[in-house]
Each structure stands twice: as structure tokens, then as C-alpha cells.
Amino acid sequence: MSSGSQVGEKLHQRGYLVGRQLGKGASGTVYLATTEKSGRPVAIKVIPGGRDTRDAEHRRVLVANETTLSWKLFHPYLITVFETFADAEFDYVVMEFVDGGDLQPYTTPESCLPLAEILEIARKCCIALGYASRCGVIHRDIKPANILRAGAGEIRISDFGGAIFRNLDKSAIANFGSPAFMSPEQIRGDNLDSRSDMFSFGVVLYQLLTGTLPFDAPDSQAVSFQILYEAARPIEELRPDLAPEISAAINRSLAKLASDRFAGWEAFGKVFDPEPAADASRAMTEGDSEEARRLGIALFDGIDPAGMRTITARHREWSAGDVEVFQPGQTEIAFLLDGRVDISARDGSFCATRGDIVWICGVQPQGAVPGGFRPDLSARIGILSLVDLCENPELLGKLLPRLATILGAKARRGTGRPTGESDPLAKAILATRDQLVRVVTQLDESLKN
Asked: Which residue segments constitute the domains of the chain, with CATH numbers given?
């Protein structure tokens, strides 16, 4: 690698052994590495520093975004960032290793994936990008190279370095993105919302399904002209085997005006759903029941089958072996599946074991619980996104009071005295509960209207 000995030594000091290069892009080079502690593989993006002020600012924004979003976004279909750090010449982003590579190799007529797999990828990308949108995040560089294949139909969306937060991000890198996948408003430099990413993803789907780009020309300027002023060839002319609603949805996502695309990701994603929405009265399958039994968390006792199905489908497991201090995002429940977690609070500490709720966010770990909590290497931690559960206000409404009760009991067990207003952990729990109640109430009112 360039400056290989320097980079390798720096990473070795952090407990990583660097292996082969996985890929190289505009923002940096990605290497395969293993952790000395457990030998587990990780991917490490190495971002070189520039010699002038502009390059240094570009690098600063990329790494700041990766760092911020490792806290803000935590979802099964988004890449997990474990840590970021820097030295005088390089910045490093340590993330989940996905061994299936990206989708770029499947973008020619001879290499297209099976239709069923592409539609499953489409469905999951819409779910993930809808989650990011609800968190106020616009990716700005959706393309095949930034969608990783974790298995047949399994994906992780990566590279949020150029992302912005709604229209309020003044530190965003200008003119960021890949020309062939930019929306018309992105090319013009207009304010963006999630429908810009929708256009880019429409281009991705068009290419995955046909092996060609909807807007293709010898240079980026000509491509931009096509995106701005020329209509794409309707996809059904190249893939007449597609269901009419799928062809119509992809054509709609490529509309020149954002207002002519889908209003949100949920409507776009429903087109790719292989079956109608589950009947709330339908009994849990044997697989659902086994998953619920395996979780075995008091928080979920008595939840109806449809609610349990939502929970078991959306929780994600985190292996603690490579994480010295676990720091989840701002809107998740964490619960212990196996192992041990030591929690340090200002007024004492306690140990959590299988079945315990170990953290609810709403304040950063340096708030009520400095340093978060430290899991042993064998710990497996389940994560349940409350942002996703906000799609189901009734279910979330049932969980919130239980969270306060269960976590309050843990706090009392840790401090040896009743939980009161002076207990910072209890205050954090109550503040988070109240905040989420407001979110759910607002969402409920919007649904009624």
C-alpha cells in the first residue's frame, strides 16, 4: 500500500493487522484487516490528507460525516462503522467487512443478477434509505459501488462520507457525487431532499436490470445534459418481462422533477414487496416463535404476534468481540443475548447478563453513563431501532413504559437506592421516553390527518 509501512504500523498500534486492498475510490482506499483480539475481519478505509487547505477540509468533512453517522444511523441494511481515528497524514474508518463485494460487477448485460434477487435488493435498499431519510440524512452518492452484497439478496449501503443532513448542512462538500447517478437537482446545485437519492437509486435499478445506464454519454458534461433535459428510454423496452408496476415505478423514480417521483421511500419500496402486508391476526410462524423465544427479553412479553414479528424481523445483533466500548446510536434499544456487560454510572456500576436491557439512548454516553458500557468479548447484543418502530406507533407505545420500568429497576440495582430525580440514568431514561412519546404522538396525528 502507499506509505504501507507507516499506515500498517499505525493500524497495528490500534490492534489491526492489514491485509489486501479491497478497493479504491475518490475518498480513499479500503483494505481488509483482522483484529488481533479475535481475528475477525474488518474493512478499513484509509483517507490520505491533502497538501492544500481545500483537500484538508474535504478530508475533514468526509471523516466527520462517517463518525457522526456511525452514531446516528444503525440499521441492518447500512454498513456498521466501528470507529474512526486519525494521525498527521491519514484518517481511518474501521467498518464491517462484507465479503460479497459491491454491485458494480453486476451492471453489464452479461452479468445481471437474477430478477428475484434484484427486486429483493431494491426492497431492502428502499427500507434502508427510508430509515436514513427519517433521520434527516441524504446520501448523495447512491451507486452500485456503494451497495455491498452480503449474500443473495442481502445488502449493506456504504460510504456516507458525502452525506448531508436535510438542507441545513453548511459544511457539505460541494459538487459531491458520481455524474451518471446524480439527480437533476443535484447537478443544478439546488437544495436536496430524499427524492434526490431516489433518482440515483432509480438509475442503479435501471442499470442492474438492463446492464446499461439510462443516461450514457462519452463525458460527464454530456451525461449531465441528458439527465437535465432528455428522457430515459422506458425500461420496459429493454426488460419486457418486468411486471408493469415495477417498470412504472422505476420510470417514475427517474422523473426530472422531484415532485413527480414518489413522495417517500415506503411507497417506492412497496412495489418490490413479494407479498401483501401481513395480517395482524395471523399467528406467528414456527420460525418467528423460535426467534422470540431466543430473544427471551421481558420487554417483549405479551406483545401480540404481529408486533413480535416486527421486532424479530428488525432487530440486529452486534458481536462485541472487536469493540472495546460499545456506543450505539441515539435512538435504539440494546438488549443482551449472551455474555456479560459491565455498566459504569456516576453513582455506581452493575453487571448485565442474558435477557437484560443494557442501554437506551437519548443522550450521548458521556452524559448519564460515561463511557457507555463494556462488554466481554463473547457478548452478543441485540439492537432494535426505535426510529423503525415509529412506523408502528401502537407497538412503540406499548414498549416505552416497559423501557422506563425495566431500566429504572436496573438503575436501582446498580446504585443500591431507589431511583429518583437525582439519578442521572433515570433522568436520561425519562427524557428519552418523553421525547419518543412526542415523536409517536406527532406521527399518530399525521396518520390521522
From this structure: 4-96 (3.30.200.20), 104-270 (1.10.510.10), 286-448 (2.60.120.10)
